[in-house]
């Protein structure tokens, strides 16, 4: 069975909107932040409660805080976070991965910042996306 992805990306701090449509098994949820002094990256989804999709703190993953359904299925696109790239790679995408994801960063010198990313997965449906 093929998954078809309709990805709408909205960064509230920059009023930025982008959409795409493709058949996938892995997907990258884009998030960029100011690149200086990032000490924590947290990817979460509201329906997961206190557990997160991914927690990366002080250059290490924190598996104890991760929801079991994302174990061994997520990674950062660039663990060095060059140019503020804190995008999430989600592997072996499932229909249950549908949801609104939040990318939150914490820096040494500034308060935290959040970005919302909506991931909508449609199973076996051919659609045309018009923006």
TrEMBL record:
Pfam families listed in its UniProt record: V-set
SMART domains: IGv (SM00406)
Membrane topology: Single-pass type I membrane protein
UniProt keyword annotation of Disulfide bond present: yes
SUPFAM superfamilies membership: Immunoglobulin (SSF48726)
Record Gene3D superfamilies: Immunoglobulins (2.60.40.10)
Domain of life: Eukaryota
Stretches assigned to the Ig-like domain: 25-105
Keyword annotations of the record: Cell membrane, Disulfide bond, Glycoprotein, Immunoglobulin domain, Membrane, Receptor, Signal, Transmembrane, Transmembrane helix
GO cellular component, one term: external side of plasma membrane
Location(s), subcellular: Cell membrane
TM ranges: none
This protein's record includes keyword Secreted: no
InterPro entries according to UniProt: Ig-like_dom, Ig-like_dom_sf, Ig-like_fold, Ig_V-set, T-cell_Activation_Regulation
GO process terms (BP): cell surface receptor signaling pathway; cellular response to lipopolysaccharide; immune response; negative regulation of T cell proliferation; positive regulation of T cell proliferation; T cell costimulation
Stated name of the protein: Ig-like domain-containing protein
């Amino acid at each position: 069975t093929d998954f078809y992805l309709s990805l709408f990306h909205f960064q509230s701090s920059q009023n930025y909107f982008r959409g795409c449509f493709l058949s996938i098994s892995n997907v990258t949820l884009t998030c960029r932040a100011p690149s200086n002094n990032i000490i924590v990256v947290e990817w979460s989804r509201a329906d997961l409660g206190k557990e997160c999709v991914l927690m990366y703190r002080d250059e290490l993953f924190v598996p104890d805080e991760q929801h079991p359904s994302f174990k061994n299925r997520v990674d950062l696109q660039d663990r060095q976070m060059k140019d503020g790239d804190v995008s999430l790679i989600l592997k072996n995408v499932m229909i249950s991965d549908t949801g609104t994801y939040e990318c939150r960063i914490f820096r040494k010198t500034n308060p935290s910042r959040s970005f919302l990313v909506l991931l909508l997965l449609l199973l076996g449906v051919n659609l045309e996306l018009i923006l």
